[in-house]
Amino acid sequence: MLYMSVQSPVGSLVLHEEDGAITRLTWGDAPAEDDSSLLREARAQLAAYFEGDLTRFDLPLRVMGSEFQRAVCDAMSAIPYGETLTYGEIAKLTGNSAQAVGNACGGNPIPIIIPCHRVLGAGGKLVGFSGAGGVETKVQLLRLEGAAGLLI
User: Fold this and answer.
1) In degrees to the nearest 10, what's the CA dihedral of 148, 118, 86, 66?
2) pLDDT 10s digits, 54-81
3) What's 80's DSSP letter?
4) So where's the catalytic machinery, residue-wise (predicted)?
C-alpha cells in the first residue's frame, strides 16, 4: 500500500493507494510518504475541490466491502456537487433500510471523494459523519459546495 499526506481545510488527510486505485482516505498523518502518479493526481483533485474548482472527482477507486457497501458508495458518488439525498432516498435506490444505509455511509472508506457528507437524515437533518470533526466537518464540506440551503 502507498500513502500520501494532504493538507486540507478539514485537517490533515491521508490518501491510500493499492494496486492502482484509491482505497481509503483517512484523517491524520501518513505512516510513510510515497509517490505515485495516482497519489499526485488525487492530491491535485482534492486541492481543486477545496478551492471550489472541482465538482466531480475522476479517480480510480476501489471500495473494499460487501456488495451492499459498494452499492451505497455508488449511490453516494452519483449525488451531484452541491446537492443532497437522505438515507431514506438512498435506501429506496438500493432496496434496503435507511438504518442499513446509514451504517454503510458510516463505513465509507473514501470520504470526501465518495461524498457521504451529501447524505442527510430524515427531513434534511444533519446527522453523523465518520471523518474527524464529525458533523462540523460535514457542515464545512456542505458549505464549501453551497449545498442544502440549510446552512448558515
Assistant:
1) 180
2) 999 999 999 999 999 999 999 999 999 9
3) P
4) 116 (nucleophile)
72 and 46 fall within a common domain: no
What burial letters (b/e) apply to 30-57, b meaning 16+ CB within 10 Å?
A: beeeeeeebbebbbebbeebbeeeeeeb
Domain of 101? Answer: 67-145
Q: pLDDT at position 1, please?
A: 94
Q: Is residue 45 part of a domain?
A: yes
Q: Are residues 90 and 140 in the same domain?
A: yes
pLDDT for 138 equals: 92
What's the number of domains the chain is made of? 2
* C-alpha to C-alpha distance for 107 and 54, rounded to whole angstroms: 24
